[in-house]
Amino acid sequence: MFHRKTILLISIIGIILTACSISYKFNGASIDYTTTKTITIADFPNQAPLVYPMFATNFTTALQDAYIKQTRLQLVPVNGDLEIEGEITGYDLTPAAVTEDLYASQTKLTITVRVRYSNRNKPEEDFEHTYSAYDQFNNDQQFLDVQSQLEEKITKELVDQIYNATVANW
User: Which of 26, 41, 136, 156 is deepest in the core (most CB within 10 A)?
Assistant: First the structure.
């Protein structure tokens, strides 16, 4: 009798586990890989008034790397199941902190990108949005000395914002 109940209980648990599908994804992506297999990420041209030529390439590469490393999507040059395109619209240096003698003690670099996202399988998820991030540096430093560090940090933040909005469903 005990053996029969145990087998019955194990069978019921097995049926429940196979009927219910719980999926945990540690990369934060919520992608249905049965229907979504490819992604196209177009080059982001720099259309900001202040242009640093290498930033557009570096930004596009960082964005592509994020999707390649954190998802199973294959990067294709055109017609991906997911498509991301846009442009860099702002690359601005502004005073961030002012001393008592009205001189700027820190300067803020703000980078803004406009993104257009489309999902061929779920067009209701398509959107266009502008993302912005910044970092500051002390004015006792030359911008050219800290520029690459600032860009790297800001790029990471922008890529995270775009990734979360497109495939993480946060």
Answer: 41
